[in-house]
Amino acid sequence: MTHPFAAVPDLFRQDGAALPAPFDARFGPLRRGKADDLVVVAQMGQSIDGRVATESGHSKYINGAAGLDHLHQLRALVDAVVIGVGTAVADNPQLTVRRVSGPHPARVVIDPRGRLPPDARLLADDGVRRIVIVGNDARPQFPGSVELVRIGLNQGRAAPAAILAALFDAGLRRLLVEGGTHTVSSFLTAGCLDRLHIVTAPMLLGAGQPSVTLAPVERADEGLRPPVRAHLLDDEVLFDVDLSAQRLPVGRAKTSM
After folding, report:
1. Nearest to 51 by CA among 253, 209, 247
2. Whose CB has fewer CB within 10 Å in the chain, the N or C terminal residue?
């Protein structure tokens, strides 16, 4: 029996084509951006108490089958998946679409100093674009088919807006920022996310790494309170956080249609 999601990747990319329920509610907002021609969504999987890993760093797997399916569905809908080099080195992910039907996205690593190992699994030559964003002075040794994108750094870090502008110039329009927590938090703080998908698993860890870290506020009513929609994924809950009102136009992306 064909899974209901099987037709979604093709329909998603067709203007005006309706998506079958429940995928229109979950993914419809990702079809077009409000700030410019980019759509940038970040995804986090966490416990009920907001942890993405234990104190020892163990995280496989906080989310269950439905949460992992959702992540792979997102990958199948975007042009590129973006992670920081810390996550790439620690987890050595493939960043491919395996749990659902759909195309593999381009794989992008933010690696200012060029320290990603050349044998990292996400650099495997499988016909999909692989892009590593490095600083102007980095001298990495990657396979020749890997695209290097050089950008200026600020105190050794690549600014999220500069990253988005570079990926826009590379022809990538829908982007999934998948991790880690520092990378997602930096994009959120910089006003570089349209949506944030937080998939919460029915689990309490009590301590460990928090999912998102923002600058502290003094009063609770000073906290960010964007529009949120909740979707049930079996026994997990997807919180679709709408950050489009604070998303800043980036680079040379068009601000009008």
Report:
1. 209
2. N
